[in-house]
Design a protein that fits this description.
Layout (H helix, E strand, L loop, with lengths): L1 H13 L13 E2 L5 E5 L2 H4 L12 H6 L22 H10 L4 E5 L2 H4 L10 H16 L3 E7 L5 H7 L7 H16 L5 E6 L1 H8 L15 H28 L2 E7 L2 E4 L5 H24 L4 H13 L12 H8 L5 E5 L3 E5 L16 E3 L17 H13 L5 E5 L4 E2 L7 H19 L5 E7 L13 E2 L3 E3 L8 E3 L1 H12 L1 E2 L9
Parallel strand pairs: 2-3, 2-13, 3-4, 4-5, 5-6, 6-8, 7-9, 8-11, 11-13
Antiparallel strand pairs: 1-17, 9-10, 12-14, 15-16
Helix pairs in contact: 8-10, 9-10, 14-15, 15-16
The structure holds beta-D-galactopyranose.
Beta-D-galactopyranose (GAL) binds next to loops.
């Protein structure tokens, strides 16, 4: 398989010079062995929030507040009931021809207090069963250790991710997960979207744990998460890779950015700055051992101008820099949804990650909308971000860990807009892989199921299966998009057909 894939890249690398029109639909196949599947996350789907010894997470606490910070005042107490529906969910994946499934572990389900001195056997059992079912059905599990549901006890004990006290707790939890599941799980990711955790959770306070400290705290949070990832990588390398093999990465979210005026060099520079503040801030330390130079320069200068004695962006000491510069990721997970326009006009507001960049972003009104205010449909952006990652990090392996489209709570399974989104976006990924030679090894769409969409509750549906949230049994119905993806997965690309009913 490996050499087949290499030959494929070589062949298409050669054709790489052939330019393909951005709007032209490309027929063709992905490399052999390309992974296809769907993603979910524990808090958004599992429910069973206090069953079988599960501890309380910051999302349980956050959603149970009065008044509720969630748009429809809902929570993930029941969500999709996936804790009780492993067989059914695996069957849905199988029906779609998926070869991969990405889910996250609920830390508090395994370790109710977050600490390894109290292991909840029932939690381990649940994931054991799910992993075994997947493997039995020929579906590879891709496991995320942290998709935002921190055990409340650890938040109380340490203050959460802005505190470096979190590092050993995370590493011990990761070690337990590797030791219990590493014999069967070969693809691991540590953190899902640290940008969202740090900016929205600990900066704006719109997500759990609801902390509003915009100026310095998000950078501290990012710094801790990067160190926790790196120490986990070292531990994985030393204790588990020799025994079980496998790969460890991190999931970074990034949109694409387009210069407001492509002839204005200031706007063009602002695009690169936006990318480095969004993606580079996380990937660069793990690949090159340091924050991107441009990020360092801007935050240091701003901090100095504010009369601070040190930068709001922390520094890795020499020991850390040396350790990190060896590279501490095997691949980069990418969550990509949308695109922004960028102009070099600074954003006003208190000093923060946003104002530090000296730019502003907005979306073009002409771009088709979704049900999420931040998500507009710009398929070519996917090809661009994949190429930027290829060029920035030496064609590092990329696994697309999320990509998807939302419609409203009252939408049904006739989800033509979602079909169109997936079709156009994955076609741009095909161009990135086969024409541009981007090293993408798989694609996991978001999401297998409609689910609890964080601060939006159940007002936005992202699933390829429609979930009936008023039915106590949370019945699932495949949408048109499930059928579309099935065809894509089984063809491993887009086959030219004459049929009228072709997607
Ligand atoms: C991502 C997140 C997912 C999901 C998705 C759609 O930021 O990782 O959990 O909510 O966005 O909004």
């Amino acid at each position: 398989m490996r050499s087949q894939a290499r030959l494929f890249f070589l062949l298409f690398g050669l054709i790489g010079l052939v330019k393909c029109d951005e709007d032209e639909f490309l027929y063709g196949k992905f490399p052999p062995g390309f992974k296809w599947g769907l993603s979910v996350a524990s808090y958004q789907t599992e429910g069973a929030y206090q069953e079988d010894g599960k501890g309380v997470s910051i999302w349980d606490t956050f959603t149970h507040q009065t008044p509720s910070p969630i748009l429809d005042e809902s929570n993930g107490d029941i969500a999709c009931l996936s804790y009780h529906k492993s067989e059914e969910d695996v069957q849905l994946l199988k029906n779609m021809g998926a070869t991969t499934y990405r889910f996250s572990l609920s830390w508090a389900r395994i370790l109710p207090n977050g600490t390894v001195d109290n292991i909840n056997a029932k939690g381990i059992e649940y994931y054991d069963k799910l992993i075994n079912l997947l493997i039995k059905n020929g579906i590879e599990p891709v496991v995320t250790l942290y998709h935002w549901d921190l055990p409340q006890h650890l938040q109380d004990l340490t203050g959460g991710w802005p505190s470096e006290e979190m590092i050993p707790y995370f590493v011990q939890y990761a070690e337990l997960a590797f030791s219990k599941f590493g014999d069967r799980v070969k693809t691991w990711t540590t953190f899902n979207e640290a940008w969202v955790v740090c900016l929205i959770g600990y900066g704006e306070g719109v997500f759990a744990p609801g902390i509003k400290e915009i100026s310095e705290t998000p950078y501290k949070c990012a710094h801790t998460i990067l160190k926790a990832h790196a120490q986990t990588y070292r531990m994985f390398d030393e204790k588990f890779r020799p025994k079980f093999g496998g790969k460890l990465g991190i999931v970074i979210d990034s949109g694409w950015y387009i210069a407001a005026d492509e002839n204005d060099p200031k706007d063009v520079d602002a695009v690169e700055r936006a990318l480095q503040f969004k993606h580079g801030l996380f990937a660069s330390p793990l690949v090159f051992g340091k924050y991107p130079d441009i990020v360092r320069k801007y935050v240091d200068e701003k901090s100095q101008n504010e009369g601070r004695s040190s930068s709001r962006l922390p520094t890795f000491d020499e020991e850390w820099s040396t350790f990190l510069s060896g590279g501490v990721v095997d691949f980069l997970g990418l969550n990509h949804y949308t695109t922004q326009m960028v102009s070099a006009k600074p954003t006003r507001g208190p000093p923060s990650w946003y104002t530090d960049q000296d730019l502003s972003t907005y979306q073009d009104d002409a771009w088709p909308k979704s049900a999420s205010s931040w998500l507009r449909v710009v398929p070519s952006g996917f090809r661009h971000i994949l190429n930027w990652i290829k060029n920035t990090y030496g064609n590092i392996e990329v696994l697309v860990t999320e990509n998807g489209f939302s419609d409203t709570a009252d939408a049904d399974w006739n989800d033509d807009d979602r079909v169109n989104y997936f079709k156009q976006y994955t076609n741009n990924m095909l161009k990135a892989v086969t024409i541009d030679g981007c090293n993408v090894t798989g694609y996991l769409g978001w999401s297998l199921l409609d689910n609890f969409e964080w601060a939006s509750g159940y007002t936005e549906r992202f699933g390829v299966h429609w979930v009936n949230f008023s039915d106590p049994d949370r019945t699932r119905t495949p949408k048109k998009s499930a059928a579309f993806l099935k065809e894509l997965f089984t063809n491993n690309g887009f086959a030219k057909v004459d049929k009228k009913d072709e997607f």
